[in-house]
Design goal:
By secondary structure, chain A is mainly α. In chain A, about 70% of the residues lie in helices and about 0% in strands.
Chain lengths: ~160, ~500
């Protein structure tokens, strides 16, 4: 496999596995009640067939070797941001939008300021991020909840009291 | 064209609310377009949840203003930083940045700003007239023709997107599967209701998918790659100077680029980036006299790119409004916003909701004027646009995107879909599966499936009717032809390059 893209082979295997699962699930669907209608399984099975054929082509003829997508540290940094997304979901559910938005806004602003304000001290970054999180969080709350009347969660935790 | 509705749309936009939406949308678009990385399409995705709360016509005015602003703002980063603000302004860098290096950014900026306006407005006027005739013709089409049009659109995106065709087709297959989740359009049977979760019956919300696939993924990866350092911009920009001489000297370049832009915009899935590259390479090939100046500060390079990418806006609106087929990624978001209100984009849109259609055009023209005024009067402020600390902007975009994902379903399921789409987007990037064919198929799949199955049901001879009706057959042939071209052209290019290399040796 020297000089050939391992990614393409992996993509091909994933596509074939997905195609198998989609086909299996589609075959369990009932036929259509209308005459001439190929039924609900036809369309997803077209997708599965495409994935199977293209997956097979990628395995048989992978492209040339490709460069690394992200380094180990970069994956770690991407993971931290994704954890912030998950934290937003958890905080939104338990403590509501009023807490989730400013907290996650603060963490994200602080993390990203390390890149855009490399000369700033940690203390300065914390303070500016905190002020921004409170002000911007309040602005988003006013826009969405008060002006747009969006129904954002208040948090299950507060219902305990 | 119904002048009374056109006048009514204009009147609605001249209210305080309408004016605020157009001005804010245009300026926010310019800002996001100027800053390399995000682009106006991210802003559109973030704004999508507003469609639930806004009146549809006004929402469209806001959206089109963001598109116009974003497309026009893209040249600022390209010319001043040498980094394209948007992919549509990629080739503006090649000649535009040279002017900045030579200490004369105003000439390139003035030409770009003027080309933006002159590219946009005539293409919109053309679209206003073309849409009505195309829509009138489109209502006479049956399910066979619609299925053929969708089939052609998907294959054209795959064939012309210059990515790996096999991988693009995997993206198409995946999008077909994901769009099949939920209630089947003909029998109302539940499909792929995973883990018995009834939220799947409504299908995967397009807004959540886009918020995850674009906003959440892009910001996560840009942070990980440390791509967003603060821009060290020291260049000073003076006021706008009317580029009359540049335009008179390059009038044919402008006209050809405009035609290229409108035509490429009209084709599904290509949009501004392809239009700009094509116009640039056309002009470079045709300009035999000054060939050596291209890439070293030829003003025609700036004019051709900026005219073509903006002319593409009007071109892209024609199939969107008349046929319900998005011309580019921004048009996909127009469809999503209207779907939120239960409004189907397609040939009946202009009959049933003319106020929305005309609002798009009037909003676009007004936005073009607002952008022109800002960019000519406020040219001195361009460098400061590029100095905005990105950590404030990006963190806010994420909060708005995640909040929007929640609002799209009014429960946490929308957020789960957005996070799932973010992971899917990363996997697709790792495996180099292009996202545009995926997205176009995801948006067109419901229309394709419904018409495909109706075509089978209504016909006396099953699938044969797809090949006996001329328009349907023509669409199938064009689609397959473009796909085959997409497969063969890289092979031929490689052979040609190898032959050239052998000759050089």
């Amino acid at each position: 496999m020297n000089g050939k893209s391992k990614k393409d082979v992996v993509a091909g295997i994933i596509a074939i596995i997905c195609a198998g699962i989609i086909t299996w699930l589609s075959l369990q669907m009932k036929a259509s009640a209308y005459s001439g209608d190929p039924g609900p399984k036809m369309f997803p099975m077209i997708g599965a067939a495409l994935m199977f054929i293209c997956g097979l082509l990628l395995i048989i003829k992978p492209g040339p070797e490709d460069k690394k997508f992200l380094t180990g540290t970069q994956w770690k940094d991407a993971g931290i941001i994704f954890l912030c997304y998950i934290a937003f979901v958890v905080l939104l559910h338990f403590f509501g939008f009023g807490v989730a938005a400013p907290v996650v806004l603060f963490v994200l602003t602080y993390l990203m300021s390390a890149l855009s304000m490399p000369d700033a001290t940690k203390k300065k970054r914390v303070i500016t991020s905190l002020i921004y999180a409170i002000l911007a969080g309040a602005a988003v709350y006013v826009c969405y909840v008060l002006l747009l009347k969006a129904r954002l969660p208040k948090g299950v935790f507060w219902k305990l009291f | 064209m119904d002048m009374s509705i056109l006048a009514e749309s204009f009147k609605n936009l001249c209210t305080v609310q309408g004016f605020v939406f157009v001005v804010l949308g245009s300026l926010a678009g310019v800002l996001l377009g100027a800053i390399p990385g995000l682009g106006s399409s991210t802003l559109l995705v973030v704004l999508l949840p507003l469609a639930y709360k806004m009146e549809p016509a006004m929402c469209m005015a806001l959206f089109i203003s963001v598109v116009i602003g974003g497309m026009s703002g893209g040249c600022i980063g390209s010319i001043l930083l040498g980094i394209p603000g948007t992919s549509s302004s990629l080739c503006t860098v090649w000649d535009g940045y040279e002017f900045t290096k030579q200490g004369n950014p105003v000439r390139a900026l003035s030409a770009a700003v003027t080309a933006n306006f002159l590219g946009t407005v005539p293409s919109l006027i053309l679209a206003i007239f073309a849409v009505k005739y195309l829509a009138r013709w489109a209502v006479t089409l049956g399910p066979w023709e619609y299925a053929g049009l969708c089939f052609m659109a998907v294959l054209m995106v795959v064939g012309l997107s210059k990515g790996n065709v096999v991988k693009s087709m995997i993206g198409v297959g995946l999008a077909i599967f994901l769009s099949s989740i939920g209630t089947d359009p003909i029998n109302a049977t539940g499909r792929f209701v995973l883990f018995g979760n009834l939220n799947f019956l409504k299908g995967l919300n397009l807004i959540s998918v886009m918020l995850g696939l674009f906003a959440a993924k892009i910001i996560m990866l840009e942070y990980a790659r440390h791509e967003k350092q603060n821009n060290q911009i020291t260049v000073k920009v003076d006021g706008y100077k009317i580029p009359l001489k540049d335009f008179i000297e390059n009038k044919w370049c402008f006209i050809r680029s405009w035609i290229t832009g409108v035509f490429i915009g009209f084709l599904p899935g290509l949009g501004g980036p392809v239009a700009a590259v094509m116009a640039y390479s056309n002009e470079k090939t045709l300009d035999k006299k000054h060939k050596e100046t291209w890439g070293h500060g030829n003003i025609a390079g700036v004019i051709s790119c900026e005219t073509a990418n903006n002319a593409g806006i009007g071109g892209a609106l024609i199939p969107l409004i008349a046929l319900g087929i998005p011309g580019d990624a921004a048009c996909v978001q127009f469809i999503s916003a209207l779907n939120v209100k239960g409004i189907q984009v397609g040939p009946l849109l202009i009959q049933e909701h003319p106020e929305i259609v005309y609002m798009i055009f009037i909003g676009a023209i007004l936005s073009g004027i607002v952008v022109l005024l800002y960019e000519t009067l406020g040219m001195k402020t361009f460098p400061s646009l590029l100095k905005i600390p990105y950590h404030y902007l990006y963190s806010m975009v994420i909060i708005l995107a995640l909040t929007g994902a929640y609002m799209s379903t009014n429960n946490l399921f929308g957020l789960y879909v957005a996070l799932g789409s973010c992971i899917l987007g990363v996997i697709m990037d790792v495996l180099e599966i292009p996202s545009l064919p995926f997205l176009m198929t995801f948006i067109l799949s419901p229309m394709l499936e419904e018409n495909l199955r109706k075509g089978f049901s209504y016909a006396e001879n099953g699938w044969v009717q797809f090949f006996t009706r001329p328009i349907s057959l023509a669409c199938i042939i064009i689609g397959i032809g473009v796909l085959v071209y997409g497969i063969i052209s890289p092979v031929l290019e490689r052979k040609k390059a190898a032959k050239k290399a052998a000759e050089a040796n």
